[in-house]
Write a structure and sequence with these properties.
Layout: H1 2-6, H2 11-20, H3 59-95, H4 103-109, H5 113-132, H6 134-137, H7 141-148, H8 151-177, H9 179-191, H10 198-202, H11 204-221, H12 230-266, H13 270-278, E1 285-294, E2 300-310, E3 315-319, E4 334-335, E5 339-342, E6 349-352, H14 365-388, H15 400-425, E7 428-434, E8 445-451, H16 455-471, E9 480-482, E10 488-489, E11 497-503, E12 513-520, H17 529-534, E13 540-546, E14 552-558, E15 565-572, E16 576-582, H18 587-590, E17 605-610, E18 614-619, E19 627-632, E20 639-644, E21 648-653, E22 657-664, E23 667-668, E24 674-677, E25 683-688, E26 692-697, E27 700-705, E28 711-715, E29 724-730, E30 733-738, E31 743-748, E32 754-759, H19 760-763, E33 776-782, E34 785-790, E35 795-799, E36 814-816, E37 818-819, E38 824-833, H20 860-864, E39 879-881, E40 915-917, E41 941-957, E42 962-983
Helix pairs in contact: 2-5, 3-5, 3-11, 5-8, 7-12, 8-9, 8-12, 11-12, 12-13, 14-15
Organism: Takifugu rubripes
Domain DH: 63-250
Keywords: Coiled coil, Guanine-nucleotide releasing factor, Phosphoprotein
Length: 984
């Protein structure tokens, strides 16, 4: 520490050693009220200070210095806020005479603040040493890794975050019962320069790691490739994201258990209370909604707030007593929106989830019936259009153009009907709820209408209800288990859910097998809020395959519904080996000068690589999937893999070469391709990064520059007989799988350094695979999971970070209990973004029908905060203002908000006063908007993962092994579809 304070070069290393020794200031407390008084006092030390800017710096170096300055200022401000909590609030309350609060209440309010302060005091010392050397080292990422990757930091912050709700509740109760305490808080706020409240100070630790992540993202963006700080920054982002993920998960579990316990305690019915206690940890969604009762003419008769809880297999709704100190539930006010039946051998009554999302939940029955009829007609006309396209002759008024006009006309009518329904139903949730049977035993149901605070809330409820029903199916009960945790079954709410499994090829052949698949995204404006919440990602699924001596076949499925539907089959001259979707060139690509300038063409298209060396180019499904172009290799070598960049199409061939086709009129120039020879082994995998292409040949990978086609090779496996079979990229790393063995390896995209190696056989030790080791047959990264398909038909998922860091495996893996009977031939991620227009609340829906008599309850201030996107930060909490506190309300507003002193301070919804955990979905700690979406903050992403292979089987867990259930097994070509929850 002394060396670090004096600014010597070995200061950081000695600080790291001190941190690694777990010094006494971070000693854990056995109980919340038994805080140890032995802390390491931090002596005064020179603060981090950047020297004057040297001459001759590049623009990126200047920006990096400014970002470093922001880190210094941010950390100084944060540390000062922590010290203010201790010096201005904790110490005066502990030393007050007479006592304002007892020490028994003070300790849990400021739980772990001192340890967090000491953590960041040490980081501040190390930061000062690093800043002093900045002009010579320009390295900061490793400092974050050394300071925040230790388990003690997670322990301290986790305790604080989990206790935050309790601390705010104690502050609220103290304000209500101790006027002197409320006066103390008001006095402290008024005397502070920035007028920040105690809540405003105590919420800063929860916001700290998202702030760090945003700063390091900016630093990485302005750090050029090859810089010494690139890899450390990426590793730092990985560590901080892991920490944020763990904090968020622990907070989520703590909150849902607290909500469930509160509900169970408040219910006088023993059966329901016991069932709720069993449901702890399975709470999926909890929110205050408005129940609305309508008359026969559609007029609103009454509306009332309800607290609605969605568990894995139970939906509970309760009245809210707002006059009480907290939410109160009782047997008299509890409404059972559930059906109680006997389903155990002991005749014990249990509560079953039997909610049906029926036809009426989308909108008025008449409008919805008309919409159903139009959608049926459109489906029929689509089929007719596909049949018309196969006619051999020419007939008047019977051609593809006329059929497409029919489709367009029906689509316009459907769009009008959808808009009518959407305008009144973006915040209206209709549930067809089963009730108790009547005297004759016939089932009885009734309609419940709920209004959500926002369209986003309705989307979340519809999606979660849909997934809750899927989770109760046999194939998802259970669906996954953890092989590293003695086969522990994973909770259904945190796993991908198997939505369906189905045969692929309508024309079956014994030797025909699956080879590849792709997602052809189509933005469908016809999907409404509810349909988009329950359907798969919008677009079409292409599945290709074939046999050794047969023609190839492509099956096209529509994904705009909960289960894929086959819409078309294509036959090709040889077996399909690979597929590649090429989107329509963006406006930026179309304006590129020179030979790459694109002109008007067919737009998006699909490239199909065949076993005879041909590449067939098809138009998208919405353009009738017509053949547009055929590219042929003179040597007839099989096309094993296809990838594209903005201006080139790359084809990996079996003879060890890569063919490169340039763009020509939005397609590809077949006249003069470039041939790049990589070796004698087949080129099995291609991967396109920013400005280069990775190609695997044998046990080596060649990095080829796209502009000059210069190559650089490096060996990724020591055994020459082992070849690289699969490559997937995320952030700054590439995972590779091999033709032999059960290991996968992670390489850095810039330094080509080996960063991690995982043995899949060890991860799946509970699976009885026989004498053979697990062999990887497919690989995929999707939404924070690395999916590994094996030759034994098993599918394994491993958690990886989602940001721009290194996709290291950071936790325990899961094994799917739904497997193929043969190798997993492909794994495909399908994603689509919900139209932002669906999230806009129309004025039609904001009448007395909506919550609070027409008042839009959504908090606009939350929309102004940082929102999560595909690259977003993961901490999120729900807060609201405690406007019901007695006495004068606190505010963070300045003096301009009042003409006098404390007695006239006014309260507003956006202020920073004392807050409590609540059910308003105001998400205030999130990441930045995604740049490629123009900074849009209201993105809703639908995702599903599809696997293909021979047959389908269910695995069943045993004590030490996993066997198979042979009944109902089939060896047909089968694909399984896993649906993931919507992400916002």
């Amino acid at each position: 520490m002394k060396a670090a304070r004096s600014g010597t070069k070995d200061g950081l290393e000695k600080t790291k050693i001190a941190v690694m020794r777990k010094v006494s200031f971070l000693q854990r407390k056995d109980q919340m009220g038994n805080e140890k008084a032995h802390f390491l006092l931090t002596l005064k030390h020179p603060p981090p200070q950047l020297s004057s800017m040297p001459q001759g710096l590049t623009s990126q170096q200047v920006v990096r210095r400014h970002i470093l300055g922001s880190i210094i200022q941010s950390e100084r401000s944060y540390l000062e806020s922590l010290r203010r909590i201790l010096q201005e609030y904790h110490s005066p309350l502990m030393d007050a005479d007479p006592r304002i609060l007892s020490s028994r209440k003070i300790r849990p309010i400021f739980y772990r603040i001192r340890e967090i302060t000491q953590c960041h005091s040490m980081f501040h010392i190390a930061l000062a040493s690093r800043v002093a050397e900045w002009d010579t080292s320009e390295k900061i990422g490793d400092l974050f890794v050394a300071s925040f990757s230790k388990s003690m930091v997670l322990d301290v912050y986790s305790d604080y975050v989990n206790n935050f709700t309790n601390a705010m509740a104690l502050i609220k109760k103290a304000c209500m019962s101790k006027p002197a305490f409320l006066e103390f808080l008001k006095r402290k706020q008024a005397s502070s320069v920035d007028r920040i409240t105690l809540y405003g100070l105590m919420v800063k630790p929860i916001q700290r790691f998202p702030q760090f992540i945003l700063l390091l993202q900016d630093m990485l963006k302005n750090t050029p490739k090859g810089h010494v700080d690139r890899l450390p920054l990426q590793l730092a982002l990985t560590e901080l994201e892991m920490l944020a993920e763990k904090l968020n998960e622990q907070k989520r579990v703590a909150d849902q258990i607290a909500e469930t316990q509160q509900l169970a305690r408040s219910v006088s019915d023993r059966l329901l209370s016991k069932q709720l206690n069993l449901e702890q940890g399975s709470l999926i969604l909890c929110e205050t909604l408005i129940e609305t009762v309508y008359g026969e003419r559609g007029q609103v008769l009454k509306s009332k707030e309800r607290k609605v809880f969605l568990f894995e297999d139970v939906l509970v709704c309760a009245n809210i007593n707002l006059n009480a100190e907290d939410y109160v539930f009782s047997a008299q006010t509890l409404k059972y929106w559930i059906y109680v039946q006997e389903r155990s051998s002991l005749q014990t009554k249990v509560i079953c989830f039997l909610i049906s999302l029926g036809r009426n939940f989308m909108g008025p029955p008449r409008l919805y019936q008309e919409l159903q009829e139009l959608q049926h007609d459109l489906s029929v006309v689509e089929d007719v259009t596909l049949l018309v396209g196969t006619l051999q002759g020419m007939y008047q008024n019977l051609n593809t153009t006329v059929a497409q006009d029919w489709c367009l006309a029906l689509q316009r009518l459907i769009r009008i009907k959808e808009e009518q329904i959407q305008s009144a139903n973006k915040c209206r949730l209709r549930l067809q709820v089963p009730g108790r049977p009547d005297k004759s035993g016939r089932p009885v149901s009734f309609m419940v209408v709920l209004n959500t605070p926002s369209p986003l809330s309705k989307i979340s409820w519809v999606n979660r209800l849909h997934l809750a029903k899927i989770a109760l199916r046999e194939e998802n009960s259970p669906g996954w288990f953890c092989g590293e945790d003695e086969g522990k079954v994973m909770a259904r709410g945190c796993c991908p859910l198997l939505a369906s499994h189905m045969s692929v090829f309508a024309m079956k052949s014994p030797d025909r097998k699956l080879q590849a698949a792709l997602h052809n995204p189509v933005q469908c404006a016809l999907l409404g809020v509810s349909a988009a919440s329950t359907s798969l990602p919008q677009g079409y699924l292409w599945v290709g395959g074939g046999g050794d001596a047969s023609r190839g076949q492509i099956e096209i499925f529509s994904l705009n519904r909960p289960v894929p539907r086959a819409v078309k089959s294509l036959l090709v001259g040889s077996a399909v080996r690979c597929l590649e979707y090429v989107p329509e060139p963006s406006p930026n690509e179309e304006t590129v000068a020179g030979s790459h300038k694109a002109s008007s063409g067919p737009g998006a298209h699909i490239c199909v690589g065949l076993d005879d060396g041909s590449i067939v180019v098809y138009g998208s499904v919405d353009t009738a999937a017509q053949c547009l172009l055929t590219l042929r290799d003179p040597e007839g070598s099989a096309v094993l893999c296809l990838k594209h960049s903005a201006h080139h199409l790359f084809a990996a061939l079996h003879n060890g070469t890569v063919m490169v086709y340039a763009r020509s009129n939005s397609l590809w120039d077949a006249a003069s391709p470039t041939r790049v020879c990589l070796g004698s082994e087949p080129v099995r995998a291609l991967l396109v990064l920013d400005d280069s292409v990775w190609a695997s040949c044998g046990n080596s990978v060649t990095v080829m520059d796209i502009s000059s086609f210069t190559t650089q090779g490096f060996e990724v496996h020591p055994e020459p007989v082992v070849s690289v079979s699969h490559m997937v990229c995320a952030g700054g790393g590439v995972w590779m799988a091999f033709s032999e063995g059960s290991s996968i390896r992670l390489f850095h995209t810039e330094t080509l350094e080996l960063l991690q190696e995982i043995n899949i056989s060890i991860r799946s030790a509970l699976v009885n695979t026989g004498p053979k080791s697990m062999q990887v047959s497919s690989l995929l990264i999707c939404q924070g999971l690395l999916w590994v398909g094996t030759a034994q038909g098993l599918i394994i998922t491993l958690p990886v970070p989602r940001l721009e860091g290194i996709p290291k495996i950071t936790g325990k893996g899961m094994i799917s209990l739904n497997a193929h009977c043969g190798p997993v031939d492909f794994l495909l991620a399908t994603t689509s973004t919900l139209s932002p227009d669906l999230l806009k609340r129309d004025s039609v829906g904001d009448g007395p029908d909506s919550a609070c008599g027409g008042e839009d309850r959504s908090d606009n201030s939350s929309q102004e905060s940082l929102q999560q996107s595909g690259r977003g930060v993961l901490l999120q909490y729900r807060l609201r203002s405690t406007s019901g506190l007695p006495g004068r309300l606190l505010t963070a507003l300045g003096d301009e908000a009042s003409d006098s002193s404390l007695e006239s301070l006014e309260h507003s919804v956006e202020d920073g006063s004392i807050y409590e955990l609540s059910d308003d979905p105001d998400i205030w700690v999130k990441g930045r908007p995604c740049e490629r979406d123009g900074g849009r903050r209201d993105r809703v992403i639908s995702a599903a993962v599809i696997s293909g292979g021979k047959g389908f089987r269910r695995l069943k867990r045993g004590a030490t092994t996993v066997g198979t259930r042979t009944s109902g097994e089939t060896l047909d070509n089968t694909m399984m579809v896993w649906q993931l929850p919507l992400t916002v």
